[in-house]
Amino acid sequence: MEERNIIKWNEYSEYTELTVPSGEIWMSESEMVDLFGVFIPKLRNAIKALYKEELIKPFEAERTIKKKDNLYITVYNMEVVLLLAFRLDTYQSRAVRRELMERIGRNHKPFEVILTAHTGKECPTTQGGGGVKRAL
Questions:
Q1: Are 4 and 75 in contact (CB under 8 A)?
Q2: Which residue would you say has higher pLDDT here, 110 or 61?
């Protein structure tokens, strides 16, 4: 039997907290049902839609693991969990989105993206023949 990391809700006397462990995350359907607060058919339809829209490939997203007593279950990787958090519309999925975005934001280092575009006219840097002329 293989040890897995899962995202889960921990209920304390005063509040409910989302626990996101470090390491590789693989979750079963029943664990994701508990996480997102949906029923199995809705979860399965959302997963099928991810595959149909080719947002992720099944061979990348899932694997079958052996549990005790020769029971096999299909588990899904963190990418599926993240995509489902944005696809499903429940209170729990919104809380998962907020928590994941907050965690990403904590470790975020600022960066700049510079986009340049020019028309078919010569760019100032290419005048004089020193550069390459490109047209869009």
A1: yes
A2: 61
Distance CA 112, CA 105 (A): 16
In a domain, 99, yes or no: yes
Per the structure, the count of domains in the chain is: 1
Could you tell me if 85 and 20 are in contact, meaning their C-beta atoms sit under 8 angstroms apart? Answer: no
Amino acid at 58: P
Per-residue pLDDT tens digits for 90-112: 988 998 888 888 877 776 666 66
Instruction: Single out the residue of 80, 104, 100, 99 nearest to residue 31, CA to CA.
Output: 80
Q: Which domain holds residue 95?
A: 8-106
Q: How far apart are CA 104 and CA 126, in angstroms?
A: 41
Residue 115 lies in a domain: no
Distances (CA, A) of 96 to 9, 31, 73, 93: 10, 14, 24, 5
The pLDDT assigned to 129 comes to 52
Percent of the chain with pLDDT over 70: 73
